[in-house]
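Protocol step 6 of 9: fold each sequence in the batch and record its structure tokens directly after the sequence line. For illustration, a two-sequence batch is reproduced in full.

Sequence one:
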Amino acid sequence: MNGRTEENRALALISVSDKSGILEFARRLVELGFELLSTGGTARALAEAGLPVTEVSDHTGSPEIMGGRVKTLHPKVHGGLLGRTGVDDAVMDEQAIRRIDLAVVNLYPFERVTSDPDCSFEDAIENIDIGGPAMVRSAAKNFESVGIVTSPDQYATVLERLE
């Protein structure tokens, strides 16, 4: 894909709260030559489906901490999303930051959770997404080099364009 070699395959970061359709989408990405990088529950779902996936914690060398509150807030994630080809190559090499080509991220269901009259204050707080919006914004800032997918409704269109 795009002249990449086996050693330099495109990298898709997948971190989704809504896992609808993610297994088939990820399977197609692998068939198209992408490597998969993913967080906690999403990585488990992909691995259980037999898909090759690297957990973000293995990619960064840092474990998820604070009960999962901090997992993607790391220079190897955001540098991979923000790194500009031809501009940031030297620092990316120096810091061993791998370019991320596709960000598949949807956010915690804050509105749905907090609209439940039985929602506790603690549940509301834990559904405030920090890492997801940060990854979407990092990818958006580098839109010329990074694709962004924020909804399962976009999977078919993205696959059509990649094929």
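Sequence two, same batch, same settings:
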Amino acid sequence: MPPHRQGVSESEDATKDGTIFRKAEAAYNSLLHIVGSPGRYQIILIFLLGLGTLSVTVNDYVSIFYATPPTGIYCKIPEHHTTKGVMPDCIAQFIIELQNSSKTDVDFLYAEIDPEYCYITPPGANLTNSDLEFRSCRGWNCPYDVIQNFTHEREWTVVAQWGLSCEKYWLFTLSLVLYFTGAFVGTLLFEMVTRRLGFKSYMWVWFLISVVLCLGFGFEKAFWLFVLMRFLLGVIGHGLRYSCTRLMFDLLPSEQRLGVVTALAFSSGTGLVVLGMLAYFIMDWRFILYGTLIFSAIGVSYQWTVPESLQWLLSTSQTLQAQQVFYKILAKNRQFVTAGVDATISSTSATLSQAHQSDQTWRIMLRSPDTSRPFTALLSLCFICNMVSYGSLLLLPHLGGSIYLNVTVSGLLEICGVVCGLLLLRRMSLCRIIFVSVFMGGLLCFTAGLIPGGLPKMGTVEITRTALILLGRVCIATAAAYLLEMFLRVMPLSCRNSAFGLYGAVATFGAAVGSMFNQLARFEYQVPFLVFGILCVTCAFLTFALPVDDFLEKPLVLDPEDFTIDRDVNNSADYPEQDEEDLVFEPLPEMTRSPYILS
């Protein structure tokens, strides 16, 4: 074939494939409009599936409450510490105070490596040196068996459990990184599994495994076993989150998917609020993890109610099962069965099946500069936003104020941020909202990084720094939520299925990188937030590579008259593909005005 004819042929094939996917989306949207969009049953299902993602949020951030030692921890001074009888000032002060105190069962104690512990005194001791609280002491491993002699706090953490203080603190940071590495693996693994087995298949098994893992934390005695179980919990948890997210998107037409994005953001914010209140009343890290069993148990109970993805059933030519799911949703929504609906289901199944067989890999986005630029910019924004969002929140143990209040307020701010974003969508394009959110979040984090750290946690300066970080974090989290909507715009229909798992994997990889800053923040109070701020301000300009206010491929719908097609619905093989004359393509009324259903 001549080269010019070959180029024409490839262009015609691409146009034909694009038409197939547009037909498939139009047919599926029209089918969902019959059952109600959204109907009462779909709203209930989105709420139940949101509980599944809420439990993952709790597991993601529960490490905040077992990241630091309990208050009032002191360690014995090692014999090799003294050099010719000379000791640091702050340790000498502690020795004097302890010798004058009523406690005589322990001779020499010293504070933890963080300056915040240098002004904590055991019961009966009073520090007389006002400058002592601003000094830092060299730390060693702490024999935590002396905690019971000096504190009556209910707090008990992983750091205290295995003595992960001072030079061993990097092991705790490693456990955070491995958990989010498991989340990365779980997203990719479930993306491959769900292609063959569906999004609901064996969901109850994964929920039960998560329950067993949470219960297992009460019995393991070795730190390596704890790390392994956290890794597995990351795999299962984020795999379930991926499945729940895909099920939620398949319940609504494409023009209403912003409702799913909002539901996911509400679920994340609510998870933080629940975690903050739960940890306030339960200060033992094991029992905090037991609290997450409530959400896993809810998942086991409601998964029998959630049907398989209607779109997946139609795409895999399981027409009979798709009809059962369709009629179930129709009955729950109290909608009437229209004439010829079986024919519509069968023809939609044939169209979706043909599109499913023509699915392409996300790598085709890298072949052309017109598609590679927005695709690369989107993934870069996803990585940076999730890195900063997770990283800044995981650093809360090193910031000022009450950690319980900070986590709760962060969740409430995240919910408020999503609501403000919905209101702004009436006046601003989505691209501009993402730019403003990322840029402002970066400025706030950078400003917080300019403020010196290591001051008293309840001081005005430290609380102000924490407030700036929380405000910056909510801006970044709002941008990360709406980036999912932008992803569905940027990705063509032909490779959206393959790219969905990649997007989730990039997000979890960013969280893993963000968790590494936990080690740095223990010694450098300003550097992590300066890095976060610079990265966010810089990557905010990547939004100019994204589409401004239009879909790359507008969703289409079928004409209602085409629902009553006189064909044999018992044999869908007779019509593997509808004729193009039977379909009428025209933009939705909402699409001509705005891609959002907000009025």
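Proceed to step 7 once all outputs are recorded. Observation for sequence two: Residues 60 and 180 are 8 Å apart (CA to CA).
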